[in-house]
Amino acid sequence: MQLIPIDAAPEAERQGQPVVTVALVAINVALFVAANSLGWTSREFGLQPAGLWAGEPEQLRNLLLSAFLHLGFLHLAGNMLFLWVFGANVEDEMGHVGFAGFYVACGIGAGLIESALFAADTIPRIGASGAIAGVLGAFLVLFPLTPIGILPVHIVGFWALGKLMGAGESRPPTFDVSAIIVIGVWLALQIIGSLGSAAGQGGGIAYTAHLGGFAVGFAIVQVLRRGFGFAPDADDSEPEIMRQTGKEVLVAKRPLPAGHRLAPEDIEPFPWRHAPPDGHFKPEEAESLYGKRLRRNRYRYQAILTEDVEGTSEGSQT
Question: Which terminus has fewer CB within 10 Å in the chain: N or C?
């Protein structure tokens, strides 16, 4: 059974539109069409490690350009799906310019790491997977508990048949899995694939470029977070975000560090699918929190509980 991530909650709660993510998808699609229309070849525009270390000028161009080219439609579609699912929230956190620079840095970093590991290889590498792997690394740091909507592909046909008969939901049914699990499984597959590549069974996939891009993205965000106070740590609580309707509780609109005094722009209501957590605050209680200091870090879209806020009792709200 094939499982595909199709969205990351909560789409409706982002602070801005993911214009850079959309632009990157458009650029990749446009270059794919151009490459197939003009007869561009991977041998001409792919990154060749041996040529890069030999100082061939075109390989400096290909170091960037190859990260926007793809071998086939499925290669393109898979990469763009992952970019859309994981890129929009990272862009929302970094800002448009910051995310654009981050994406390019991850693509170049992935290419350099791949080239360093296979310095004598003349087989060309193309694809956005390294840059997108960097986005996954950033997502893991910034949103480890965010639910990812997973679609079991085998049920799409049944859903489509139901829609034709006038029944069923407006979108295919999905189930939520925490980002740390989704990305962890992806990372494990890349490690297994890289071991297979070392044994000559890689199937033409540059797994080490994926791992290199992931490491670059993960490291960049860690440096930003620890050196410049970007995105405070999430705690290790269970995933709390639920995408569907239910009772509304107050959640953090953005990462909030311990010691921060709450203000209107810090919190907002969010619908819960199951029973609300003990000690939550209702939307009408928002004003009672303004000016109060947090006892511990609050992750983005994590519920604000009585135990998190100084000067509140730890009784359970209903």
Answer: N
d(CA 3, CA 161): 20
Reduced to 3 states (helix: H, G, I; strand: E, B; else coil), residue 230 is coil
Please indicate, yes or no, whether residues 99 and 146 belong to a single structural domain of this protein.
yes
38-54 as b/e: b if 16+ CB within 10 A = eebebeebbbbbebbee
Report yes or no: 99 and 22 within 8 Å, Cβ to Cβ. Answer: no
Do the domain assignments include residue 12? yes
Residues 204-223 as b/e (b if ≥16 CB within 10 A, e otherwise) read: ebbbbbbbbbbbbbbbbbee
Do 273 and 166 share a domain, yes or no? no
Do 211 and 263 lie in one domain? The reply is no
- Taking CA atoms, 213 is separated from 40, 56, 152, in Å, by 25, 23, 27
The larger pLDDT score, comparing residue 158 to residue 211, is at: 211
pLDDT at residue 215 is higher than 90: yes
Closest CA to 317 of 299, 302, 304: 304
Q: Which amino acid is at 94?
A: M
**What pLDDT score does 170 carry?**
62
> What's the pTM?
0.70
In this predicted structure, the answer to whether residue 273 has a pLDDT above a threshold of 60 is: no
State the greatest distance between any 2 C-alpha atoms of the chain, in Å, as a whole number: 69
CA distance 211 to 109: 11
From 228, 261, 293, the end of a domain falls on 228
Based on the domain organization, do 268 and 199 belong to the same domain? no
- Name the average pLDDT for the chain: 81
Structural domain range at position 175: 3-228
Percent of the chain with pLDDT over 70: 81
Domain boundary among 160, 194, 228: 228
